[in-house]
Amino acid sequence: MLEPENLVVREYFSKLLGKEGLRILETVPDDEEITDEEIARLSETKLTTVRRMLYTLYENRIAEYRTERDDESGWITYLWRFNRENIKKLMRAEAEELLKDLESQLEEEREGVFYQCNCQRVLFEEAAAREFWCDECGSDFEFVENSGVIKELKEEVEEIEKWMQEIKRK
Length: 170
Ligand SMILES: [Zn+2]
Prior knowledge:
alpha+beta, Arc Repressor Mutant, subunit A, 3-stranded antiparallel β-sheet, 8 strands, 58% helix, binds zinc ion
Protein backbone atom coordinates (compact mmCIF):
# COMPACT_ATOMS: atom_id res chain seq x y z
CA MET A 1 0.00 0.00 0.00
CA LEU A 2 2.81 2.37 0.74
CA GLU A 3 4.56 1.70 -2.51
CA PRO A 4 6.73 4.82 -2.72
CA GLU A 5 6.89 4.42 -6.50
CA ASN A 6 3.15 4.91 -6.74
CA LEU A 7 2.10 8.27 -8.17
CA VAL A 8 -0.47 9.07 -5.47
CA VAL A 9 1.74 7.98 -2.58
CA ARG A 10 4.68 9.92 -3.96
CA GLU A 11 2.66 13.09 -4.44
CA TYR A 12 1.12 12.93 -1.01
CA PHE A 13 4.21 12.15 1.01
CA SER A 14 6.55 14.45 -0.81
CA LYS A 15 4.07 17.26 -0.16
CA LEU A 16 3.96 16.31 3.50
CA LEU A 17 7.58 15.39 4.16
CA GLY A 18 9.70 16.41 1.20
CA LYS A 19 11.91 14.06 -0.76
CA GLU A 20 13.70 12.70 2.29
CA GLY A 21 10.35 11.51 3.57
CA LEU A 22 10.01 9.05 0.72
CA ARG A 23 13.22 7.35 1.79
CA ILE A 24 11.84 6.96 5.27
CA LEU A 25 8.65 5.41 3.95
CA GLU A 26 10.66 2.83 2.09
CA THR A 27 12.26 1.69 5.32
CA VAL A 28 9.24 1.39 7.58
CA PRO A 29 7.90 -2.15 7.36
CA ASP A 30 4.23 -2.61 6.54
CA ASP A 31 3.12 -4.47 9.60
CA GLU A 32 5.88 -4.33 12.14
CA GLU A 33 7.06 -1.86 14.71
CA ILE A 34 10.32 -0.07 14.26
CA THR A 35 12.34 2.35 16.37
CA ASP A 36 13.33 5.80 15.19
CA GLU A 37 17.01 4.83 15.47
CA GLU A 38 16.45 1.90 13.19
CA ILE A 39 14.66 4.06 10.62
CA ALA A 40 17.52 6.54 10.73
CA ARG A 41 20.08 3.80 10.23
CA LEU A 42 18.20 2.04 7.42
CA SER A 43 17.31 5.19 5.52
CA GLU A 44 20.68 6.84 6.19
CA THR A 45 18.92 9.90 7.47
CA LYS A 46 19.80 11.98 10.51
CA LEU A 47 17.94 10.94 13.64
CA THR A 48 16.66 14.48 14.24
CA THR A 49 15.21 14.54 10.71
CA VAL A 50 13.59 11.16 11.21
CA ARG A 51 12.05 12.31 14.48
CA ARG A 52 10.71 15.48 12.91
CA MET A 53 9.13 13.50 10.10
CA LEU A 54 7.67 10.91 12.44
CA TYR A 55 6.13 13.72 14.41
CA THR A 56 4.53 15.12 11.24
CA LEU A 57 3.23 11.64 10.43
CA TYR A 58 1.92 11.35 13.95
CA GLU A 59 0.12 14.69 13.73
CA ASN A 60 -1.49 13.53 10.52
CA ARG A 61 -2.51 10.28 12.18
CA ILE A 62 -0.43 8.27 9.77
CA ALA A 63 2.05 6.95 12.30
CA GLU A 64 1.50 5.84 15.88
CA TYR A 65 3.88 4.87 18.61
CA ARG A 66 4.01 3.12 21.92
CA THR A 67 6.77 3.33 24.47
CA GLU A 68 8.70 0.65 26.24
CA ARG A 69 10.70 1.27 29.35
CA ASP A 70 13.83 -0.63 30.18
CA ASP A 71 13.55 -1.47 33.89
CA GLU A 72 17.28 -1.38 34.50
CA SER A 73 18.37 1.71 32.66
CA GLY A 74 15.06 3.54 32.75
CA TRP A 75 15.60 4.17 29.06
CA ILE A 76 12.44 4.68 27.02
CA THR A 77 12.17 3.26 23.53
CA TYR A 78 9.64 4.57 21.03
CA LEU A 79 8.20 1.90 18.80
CA TRP A 80 6.58 3.24 15.68
CA ARG A 81 4.14 1.75 13.24
CA PHE A 82 1.91 3.01 10.47
CA ASN A 83 -1.83 3.24 10.80
CA ARG A 84 -2.85 1.42 7.66
CA GLU A 85 -6.54 2.26 7.86
CA ASN A 86 -5.89 5.98 8.11
CA ILE A 87 -3.36 5.87 5.32
CA LYS A 88 -5.89 4.11 3.13
CA LYS A 89 -8.44 6.85 3.79
CA LEU A 90 -5.91 9.61 3.18
CA MET A 91 -4.62 8.01 0.00
CA ARG A 92 -8.12 7.61 -1.34
CA ALA A 93 -8.89 11.27 -0.72
CA GLU A 94 -5.57 12.25 -2.30
CA ALA A 95 -6.26 10.06 -5.32
CA GLU A 96 -9.68 11.60 -5.81
CA GLU A 97 -8.24 15.08 -5.69
CA LEU A 98 -5.50 14.18 -8.14
CA LEU A 99 -8.03 12.63 -10.48
CA LYS A 100 -10.15 15.75 -10.43
CA ASP A 101 -7.11 17.85 -11.32
CA LEU A 102 -6.06 15.52 -14.09
CA GLU A 103 -9.55 15.36 -15.56
CA SER A 104 -9.80 19.12 -15.75
CA GLN A 105 -6.32 19.35 -17.31
CA LEU A 106 -7.38 16.73 -19.79
CA GLU A 107 -10.50 18.67 -20.69
CA GLU A 108 -8.45 21.81 -21.18
CA GLU A 109 -6.01 19.99 -23.45
CA ARG A 110 -8.82 18.42 -25.48
CA GLU A 111 -10.67 21.66 -26.01
CA GLY A 112 -7.76 24.02 -26.41
CA VAL A 113 -5.38 24.75 -29.24
CA PHE A 114 -1.91 25.47 -27.98
CA TYR A 115 0.94 27.67 -29.10
CA GLN A 116 4.47 27.79 -27.82
CA CYS A 117 7.40 30.19 -27.85
CA ASN A 118 10.81 29.63 -26.34
CA CYS A 119 9.60 30.29 -22.81
CA GLN A 120 5.95 29.28 -22.45
CA ARG A 121 2.97 27.43 -23.75
CA VAL A 122 -0.28 29.38 -24.16
CA LEU A 123 -3.75 28.94 -25.63
CA PHE A 124 -4.43 30.07 -29.19
CA GLU A 125 -6.56 32.96 -27.91
CA GLU A 126 -3.66 34.37 -25.93
CA ALA A 127 -1.13 33.85 -28.71
CA ALA A 128 -3.47 35.61 -31.14
CA ALA A 129 -4.04 38.50 -28.75
CA ARG A 130 -0.26 38.92 -28.56
CA GLU A 131 0.00 38.72 -32.35
CA PHE A 132 1.91 35.46 -32.13
CA TRP A 133 4.93 37.17 -30.74
CA CYS A 134 6.30 36.75 -27.21
CA ASP A 135 7.80 39.91 -25.74
CA GLU A 136 9.28 38.03 -22.86
CA CYS A 137 11.69 35.86 -24.83
CA GLY A 138 11.51 37.53 -28.22
CA SER A 139 10.32 34.59 -30.27
CA ASP A 140 7.25 33.54 -32.29
CA PHE A 141 4.38 31.61 -30.84
CA GLU A 142 4.05 28.50 -32.95
CA PHE A 143 1.38 25.87 -33.05
CA VAL A 144 2.14 22.77 -30.96
CA GLU A 145 0.55 19.39 -31.27
CA ASN A 146 -0.74 18.23 -27.87
CA SER A 147 -1.76 14.62 -28.49
CA GLY A 148 1.33 13.49 -26.56
CA VAL A 149 0.28 15.53 -23.54
CA ILE A 150 -3.23 14.11 -23.76
CA LYS A 151 -1.89 10.57 -23.94
CA GLU A 152 0.28 11.11 -20.88
CA LEU A 153 -2.58 12.58 -18.88
CA LYS A 154 -4.83 9.68 -19.85
CA GLU A 155 -2.19 7.21 -18.71
CA GLU A 156 -1.90 8.95 -15.36
CA VAL A 157 -5.67 8.87 -14.93
CA GLU A 158 -5.71 5.16 -15.74
CA GLU A 159 -2.86 4.45 -13.35
CA ILE A 160 -4.65 6.19 -10.50
CA GLU A 161 -8.00 4.56 -11.23
CA LYS A 162 -6.40 1.14 -11.29
CA TRP A 163 -4.61 1.82 -8.03
CA MET A 164 -7.84 2.97 -6.38
CA GLN A 165 -9.44 -0.33 -7.34
CA GLU A 166 -6.49 -2.14 -5.82
CA ILE A 167 -6.55 -0.36 -2.47
CA LYS A 168 -10.27 -0.97 -2.20
CA ARG A 169 -9.54 -4.68 -2.18
CA LYS A 170 -6.75 -4.56 0.39
ZN1 LIG B 1 8.38 33.50 -24.74
